[in-house]
Amino acid sequence: MAKKKKSIIDFRKMKKAGEKVTWLTSYDYPSAQFGEAAGLDMILVGDSLGMCVYGYEGTTPVTMDQCIVHSEAVRRAAPNTFVMGDMPFMSYQISPQEAVANAGRFVKEADVDAIKLEGGKRVIPMIRAILDAGIVVCGHIGLTPQSSGQLGGHKAQGRTVESARLLIEDALAIQEAGAHMLLLEAVPPEVGKFITERLEIPVYGIGAGMHTDGQLLIISDLIGQFQAFTPKFVKKYANVAEIVTNAIAAYCEEVRAGAFPEDKHCYHMLEGEHEKFLEMIKQYSK
Ligand code: KIV
Question: What is the set of domains in the chain, with CATH numbers?
Answer without folding.
Answer: 8-238 (3.20.20.60), 244-285 (no CATH)
